[in-house]
Specification:
Largest sheet: none
Order of helices and strands: HHH
Number of strands: 0
Strand content: under 5%
Shape: elongated
Distance between the termini: 43 Å
Structural class: mainly alpha
């Protein structure tokens, strides 16, 4: 009889564990997507700021432009992963309300 009780308990707990694991995976995927969105937004923001009249580069070559774009992208990714403007957190908060 105790074996039957244990079997019933383990099967009832298994769907809960699977559901919570699926929810955790979904949350991680949403968090990654929100941070990626914030990084893209910040890349656009930094790129626009750079081209808005901050001055021409001394060299003005395409190599310097490419380096600056890579540098901007790296900076935006770093800012987004460390909290950035908080856009990713706001997106997650809105998605949690659903």
């Amino acid at each position: 009889m105790t074996q039957m009780a244990n079997i019933g308990q383990s099967t009832a707990a298994a769907p809960l564990d699977a559901a919570s694991a699926a929810k955790a995976q979904e949350r991680a995927a949403l968090q990654k997507a929100a941070k990626s969105f914030e990084a893209i937004f910040m890349r656009q923001l930094v790129g626009t700021m750079r081209h808005s009249g901050a001055g021409e580069s001394i060299d003005g070559s395409s190599a310097v432009d490419q380096f600056q774009e890579l540098s901007d992208a790296n900076m935006a990714d770093g800012l987004a992963s460390s909290g950035g403007l908080g856009i990713a957190q706001l997106i997650l908060q809105q998605l949690d309300k659903r």
